[in-house]
Specification:
With 308 residues, the chain is an all-alpha fold. The chain contains 15 helices and two strands. It has a single domain, classed as Farnesyl Diphosphate Synthase. The structure holds geranylgeranyl diphosphate.
Length: 308
């Protein structure tokens, strides 16, 4: 079956539901059971990972992978590898949320519509649960049944994206700038690192694992840079326009804590305009990939129009 025939028959919502179920099955299988010692830690890890979430990062892995897959003998192994990569990015994402919610960071009590991990399990266990989710993500990548050189490439890519020059570095800049007004350029750099880097890595992992060629990778890189930023702009807009019940996390916190955001820098209208521009940039980058990239286009639309 050609990649095009593979993506034509089902609508985006059906596709997304099926990929969310796929990654949640994989996560269930990858996480140690709550009966494995130490039970309290494993319960906390499972609570952090399996309690909802939109699974945008996993969807990006699958969509980029499906845009890159060829119908050849390697495709079956590459599809299994996509499951491992999708689980890996959701494990890292869950760890970042657990640590971000801790009293020493954002001190949040609500996440995904439920008490945060430290509220439910205690601060020390929440910290350890986040710590343990990280290596589990890299273990998942290490189990991908593809060429070892590609496994190494995928591990390096994710490690760089979430380290001190990516997600964690962005969080450090965020912490240092609470209460300060950031120039648009500095704000963008912070968000590219804090939120954009993992989203970008999710897209690129899909391309690496599914063996995408240079034209595909080039398109994916440009797409990933635009949607990585678009996600954060949408998040900043939602912080001021949506309510806590819809978001499943405390709304209005950025303003309350005087955090630098797109809305505080560009205003609501300016932020909405930037969001539309980034969506168009992302979709234009996909044109050379043809119809097999249709899921990535739909995810870009989903990111800019999401209500939670
Ligand atoms: C390493 C402590 C530490 C933090 C890393 C990503 C991050 C920095 C912190 C998360 C805090 C946060 C709310 C960032 C804004 C954008 C974002 C990542 C929102 C949450 O992602 P969603 O909306 O969440 O994809 P779900 O629950 O749907 O998975």
């Amino acid at each position: 079956m050609s990649p095009q025939a593979d993506v034509q028959p089902i609508d985006f919502q059906t596709w997304l539901t099926s990929r969310v179920q796929q990654v949640e099955g994989m996560l269930e299988h990858t996480l140690p059971g709550g009966d494995a010692v130490p039970g309290h830690l494993h319960e906390a890890m499972r609570y952090a990972v399996l309690g909802g979430g939109k699974r945008v990062r996993a969807a990006l892995v699958y969509a980029a992978g499906e845009a890159s897959l060829q119908s050849n003998a390697a495709a079956a192994s590459q599809r299994i590898a996509l499951d491992h990569a999708a689980a890996a990015v959701e494990l890292v994402h869950a760890y970042s949320l657990v640590h971000d919610d801790l009293p020493c960071m954002d001190d949040d009590t609500l996440r995904r519509g439920r008490p945060t991990v430290h509220v439910r399990f205690g601060e020390a266990t929440a910290m350890l649960a986040g710590d343990a989710l990280q290596p589990l993500a890299f273990e998942s990548l290490g189990m991908m049944p593809i060429a070892p050189a590609l496994v190494v490439q995928a591990i390096q890519l994710l490690a760089r994206a979430v380290g001190s020059q990516g997600m964690v570095g962005g969080q450090a800049i965020d912490c240092e700038n609470v209460g300060r007004v950031l120039e648009a350029e500095s704000l963008q750099q912070m968000h590219r690192m804090k939120t954009g880097a993992l989203l970008e890595a999710s897209v690129l992992l899909g391309g690496i694992v599914a063996g995408g060629g240079s034209i595909v990778r080039d398109g994916l890189e440009k797409y990933a840079a635009a949607i990585g930023l678009a996600f954060q702009v949408a998040d900043d807009i939602l912080d001021v326009t949506a309510d806590t019940a819809t978001l499943g996390k405390t709304a209005g916190k950025d303003v309350l804590e005087n955090k630098p955001t797109y809305v505080s820098t560009l205003g609501l209208d300016g932020s909405r305009e930037l969001l539309r521009t980034l969506r168009d940039e992302a979709c234009a980058a996909l044109l050379p990939l043809g119809p097999s990239a249709c899921r990535l286009t739909s995810i870009a639309d989903f990111i800019v129009s999401r209500d939670r």
